[in-house]
Specification:
- The radius of gyration is 20 Å and the shape is globular.
- The chain is mainly alpha-helical and 176 residues long.
- Mean pLDDT is 77; it is low at 1-46.
- Helix 2 packs antiparallel against helix 3 (88-111), helix 3 (88-111) packs across helix 4 and helix 4 runs antiparallel to helix 5 (151-174).
- It has helices at 3-9, 51-83, 88-111, 118-146, 151-174.
- It is built from five helices and no strands.
- 66% of the residues lie in helices and 0% in strands.
Length: 176
């Protein structure tokens, strides 16, 4: 029996027209094919982890990756502004872009497992990053300037909302 028939006979889905996985005992994925991890298997379809567990795992990984991006962004900003002497706005653009790029690479590899169309995905991911900045800007304007709430509290309170918003956009658009 050919490898493709074995894959289909075992009930694993490779997607319409996609080649059978080949290689070592675990096989390899074609670009953009999540089926090796059960990413498109509905809950209760015999996959080891259901859709809800997969979604939670992706959200947690996304948050951890985001944390690494925040640390990189802040560290780069401190170096560019305080050590290199760049203007704060230029230092912010460069450090934010570095954090977004870090997050894109790590999310592509670990959170969503997508390696195809990297430039298009990066541009979409960057656009989603900008929407997060815009959402935070609006929240600060409304709650801090408009209602007099401490900007530190508004920023801290905005993080979970922005995280979930960006996760949903990146999952459905950047890494779809």
């Amino acid at each position: 029996m050919s490898a493709e028939r074995v894959v289909h006979a075992t009930g694993s889905r490779t997607g319409a027209g996609s080649p059978a996985r080949t290689g070592g005992p675990q096989g390899t994925e074609s670009a953009g094919n999540d089926t090796a991890r059960g990413a498109d298997s509905p809950a209760g379809s015999g996959s080891p982890e259901g859709a809800g567990a997969r979604d939670l795992r992706q959200l947690i990984t996304y948050a951890l990756v985001g944390g690494s991006g925040v640390l990189l962004d802040l560290g780069a900003f401190l170096l560019l502004y305080n050590v290199a002497g760049l203007h704060e706005q230029l230092a912010n653009v460069l450090s934010t872009s570095l954090g977004i790029t870090n997050n894109f690479v790590l999310n592509a590899l670990f959170t969503f497992g997508k390696r195809d169309r990297p430039l298009l995905r990066y541009l979409r991911f960057y656009a989603v990053g900008l929407t997060g900045i815009a959402l935070t800007f609006v929240l600060l304007a409304v709650f801090s300037r408009g209602l007099g709430i401490d900007p530190n509290l508004v920023k801290a309170g905005s993080l979970p909302l922005v995280l979930v918003f960006q996760f949903a956009l990146n999952r459905k658009w950047s890494f779809a």
